[in-house]
Amino acid sequence: MDKLIITGGARLDGEIRISGAKNSALPILAATLLCNGPVTVANLPHLHDITTMIELFGRMGIEPVIDEKLSVEINPNTIKTLVAPYELVKTMRASILVLGPMVARFGYAEVALPGGCAIGSRPVDLHIRGLEAMGAVIDVEGGYIKAKAPEGGLKGANFFFDTVSVTGTENIMMAAALANGRSVLQNSAREPEVVDLANFLNAMGAKVSGAGTDTIIIDGVKELHPATYRVMPDRIETGTYLVAAAVTGGRVKVKDTDPTILEAVLEKLKEAGAEVTTGEDWIELNMHGKRPKAVNVRTAPYPAFPTDMQAQFISLNAIAEGTGAVIETIFENRFMHVYELHRMGAKIQVEGNTAIVTGTETLKGAPVMATDLRASASLVISALVAEGDTLIDRIYHIDRGYECIEEKLQMLGAKIRRVPG
Ligand code: EPU
Predict the structure, then answer these.
(1) Which of 175, 199, 230 is the last residue of a domain?
(2) Domain end point (choices 196, 213, 230)
(3) Of 68-72, 124-128, 319-323, 411-415, where does mean pLDDT reach its minimum?
(4) Residues with Cβ < 8 Å from 347, sequence gap 6 or more?
(5) What positions does UniProt annotate as the active site of this protein (predicted)?
């Protein structure tokens, strides 16, 4: 297993390019299954989760054609089996995203039920109930969700999500695109990735409106036609590099991104004392050598502060001036990084869903272990300011969501290297 070794102390300074969004690319790849011909998706990030989705397509008999710039062409007409097997689903929960498209387009799907996860229980009951509302008959048997569309196909439905769910909204929106009649999805997730997916569906001829609000209306169409689509930039990757620069007192310009999709994060960075300037597709953060001030953060569905940036802000608070409270309201077990940060000298107290972080002037390098994707990002951020070397184990978690993290950080002047293990 590869490890990262980071020698802390370098003040980050430079420019990097932001990759396509993982959490947009995954549902968009799943949505290609709805099309009646070959679809091209561009700006895919080079990430392990994307490879897993492509492998899943391979298992179903679809051979995606990938060019050197990681554009992928997918022809869903070559599908041979309607099964997403457990070996793949257990490595990536987002595999559940093929459920809605497969039932809608092919009338049947078998998708392994994702189990528990390092950050919480993460049930998929809403995905199942949404499809049932559209007339699908669903049995959960032998660890698999077996879903069958009614005679004549799925029917448009009114569905209310009792919890805001990103992939739940995406799954039902994709299924509704090919259902008979109108679907109205209430209490939908408003995340920019949901909007990106809706734009992709519309590019293929779907009739989706209201994405980005809590009510999405989908008028089902008979078929979707081929299109070429470019995935939006990754707002969490963007935010992670901004925090990395902030903790080191440095400066970073992130390019090929979109400042309008992470306003809650930019506000908190300004509150922490950063100078933030933005253009149409770039953001520059400058700390002018200052130590950040601690901030209070409460995660909630978009447009509020994202849970996927919570761990990074715990790292920011850990070296900030003052004390900050970080409240996690989305996942029940998303503080695993805290116990690793303790090993580096961070002063963090967890009580229920709240972490009280008291900033200290210095952290100390230590061997630590990555437990999930965003937790790993927080370990990297803390290592950048810690005295001495930090050895981060289990970095396969990082490779799921951060494209070329060590190259990008090296371009900003960080002392980071990967060691095969
Ligand atoms: N929930 C239910 N029932 C369901 C679905 C969700 O109770 O059927 C609950 C979850 O247990 C959780 C809450 O609803 O408490 C919100 O979960 P959501 O369904 O929104 O999460 P997700 O769709 O599984 C996506 C991202 C996550 C991100 C969350 C929250 C993708 C592929 N994943 O997950 O990304 O944290 O939304 O914004 O889009 C990451 O990139 O590191 C990551 C974990």
Answers:
(1) 230
(2) 230
(3) 68-72
(4) 318, 357, 358, 359, 360
(5) 117
- Residue range 188-247, pLDDT digits in tens: 999 999 999 999 999 999 999 999 999 999 999 999 999 999 999 999 999 999 999 999
Residue 261 CA, ligand 1 centroid: distance in Å: 18
302 and 392 in a single domain? The answer is yes
pTM: 0.98
- Report cis status (omega within 30 of 0) of the bond before 303: yes
Q: Check if 117 is active-site.
A: yes
Q: Are residues 242 and 225 in the same domain?
A: no
Task: Band the pLDDT of 68: cuts 50, 70, 90.
Answer: confident
Per-residue pLDDT tens over the stretch 305-353: 999 999 999 999 999 999 999 999 999 889 999 999 999 999 999 999 9
User: Are 187 and 331 within one domain?
Assistant: no
Q: Which residues have CB under 8 Å from 372's CB, separation 6+? A: 117, 118, 119, 334, 336, 397
Say how many Å lie between the CA of residue 277 and the centre of ligand 1. 30
Residue 217: give the domain boundaries.
22-230
Which residues, in sequence order, are bridge partners of residue 326?
297, 355
Pocket around ligand 1: residues whose beta carbon is below 6 Å from it?
A: 23, 26, 94, 120-127, 163, 165-168, 189, 306-308, 330-331, 373-374, 401
Cα–Cα distance measured from residue 163 to residue 373, given in angstroms and rounded to the nearest whole number = 23
Which tokens go with 20? 């396509």
Ligand 1, atom 2, residue with closest C-alpha: 123
Query: Which residues are annotated binding-site positions for UDP-N-acetyl-alpha-D-glucosamine?
Result: 93, 122-126, 308, 330
Confidence of residue 70 (pLDDT cuts 50, 70, 90): confident
Distances in Å between the Cα of 69 and the Cα atoms of 23, 65, 409 are 19, 12, 21
